[in-house]
Amino acid sequence: MSRSRIVTVVLIAAGIVWTSTVVAAFSAIRRFESTPGLSADAHATWPASSRVPRATGASTLVMLIHPQCSCSRASIKELEAIIDQSPRSMRTYVLVYRPADAKAGWENTDVYRAATGLRRAQVIVDVDGSEAKRFGGFTSGQTYLYDGDGRLRFTGGITSLRGHEGLNRGRVDVIRIANAQETSATHPVFGCAITSKTTTRGARP
User: Fold this and answer.
1) What percent of the chain has pLDDT over 70?
2) How far is residue 175's CA from residue 82's CA, in Å, rounded to a whole number?
3) What is the dihedral of CA 126, 146, 150, 137, to 10 degrees?
4) CA–CA separation, 37 vs 35, rounded Å?
5) N or C: which end of the chain has fewer CB within 10 A?
6) CATH architecture designation of domain 60-200
7) CB neighbours of 70 closer than 8 A, spacing ≥ 6?
8) Residue 135 clears pLDDT 90, i.e. is over it
């Protein structure tokens, strides 16, 4: 076989390997983006053991966030849109996870700072995910909407994929329910794990 033909064969083989690698990487990314996190073991009513104050006679929204989950930036952005299009009476809390043994400031990431920049939202550092356990949540971005009587109206995520901003069914449902105070809805949640089902056992209200 001539030298030029050998070079051609090598280049073709390298091209096939490169293309296969790119396709495999793209497929892996898409699988990651489209694979939801663990759905909440949500309670039908506001957990009585929670230390988060619930609004009486108005909606209360609670979002769980892992501050070092980069895909949660999109959840914060979607939450901003929800707040802007929901009644001003709706009370909003963002519970930011911090391990009990973490140093002070561990949670101070761009995700945390984005949450603190939200209007009409209160950020609470959730040490060791104690509140996440009370609400039965496992995944960053998990959102709950309770009506004025403390009944759960929405549970799930408010993004279409991991790290993706833009109009999606979760955001639309939360805004619709917050304004109409009727019906209920769920949506997959896309984000990093905060707690596991094992750690939430015994943490019911």
Assistant:
1) 77
2) 6
3) -40
4) 7
5) N
6) 3-Layer(aba) Sandwich (3.40)
7) 111, 163
8) yes
Q: Is 80 exceeded by the pLDDT of residue 98?
A: yes
Q: CB–CB of 188/36 below 8 Å?
A: yes
Alpha-carbon 184 to chain mean position: 19
* Token pair for 12: 């073709």
- Residues facing 156 on adjacent strands: 143, 187
What are the pLDDT digits (tens) for 58-96? 999 999 999 999 889 999 999 999 999 999 999 999 999
Distance of alpha carbon 204 from the chain centroid? 21
Q: CA 97 → CA 5, 13, 43, 78, distances in Å? A: 60, 48, 20, 19
Q: Which residue has the tokens 């750690």?
A: 199
Among residues 74, 64, 200, which one has the least CA distance to residue 141?
64
Q: Using alpha carbons only, give the angle 115, 33, 128 rounded to the nearest 5 degrees.
A: 45
- Check if the beta carbon of residue 165 is closer than 8 Å to that of residue 194: no
The answer for residues whose C-beta is within 8 angstroms of residue 77's C-beta and 6 or more apart is 114, 165
pLDDT at 195 over 90: no
pTM: 0.80
